[in-house]
């Protein structure tokens, strides 16, 4: 079953320094029926004005994935660490109890456009605190997975995240390994088809809940449509009025922020492996 969630149905915010679109309840926007989906707690599409920043705050135990669509961001924590990410990069923060984090648009004249996802993290698992990955323009790229498969970012959750690029008229079929998935369009228009012959049309900024489907087929209606699909929960990144920069594929790397603790690059510890 496919249930669409159009861009117009999402929560909206405009504070001058921040423009945002919320897929799920967040901040002032509250819908008791949309408190998250499986492990996906937050999916925000946001634009920060030049020089703007999110003030330091603490988080529940979640993995925060920031996908930079345009501009350059810097992330800082209360331990004195800071790391930067630019357009075409994905940065994963494994939040820690008692540590606060802030986000800054480094440019004084250019907005920062990015998508942010919060994923519930398994409490028994610890991963590198910061990881970064360059997005490529290939047909399909595994961005994140529980084991860091194929050079992807390593999550503390049973979630697989893919970035898909299709030209006009192209199609791709994907097997879903769990009962729930979420699909979100970054750019372009496409159809999502199930083996039950359900058909959903999505355009830039739209998303779709997918339930109890073994596989799904995506068919691009316009060139350079970008999608992402996830096992158990899938998502891709919304992009509006921006053009992604091409970059060569690179494996995810733990990032050593400047300052702070020395053990950030220690190998991840697997205290337990289970589905959360």
From TrEMBL:
Domain Pirin N-terminal, first and last residues per copy: 4-119
Top-level lineage group: Bacteria
Ranges in coiled-coil conformation: none
SUPFAM superfamilies to which the protein is assigned, alphabetical: RmlC-like cupins
Family: Belongs to the pirin family.
Transmembrane segments: none
Pfam family, one: Pirin
The protein's name in its UniProt record: Pirin-related protein
Quercetin 2,3-dioxygenase C-terminal cupin domain sequence ranges: 142-220
Gene from which this protein is expressed: yhaK
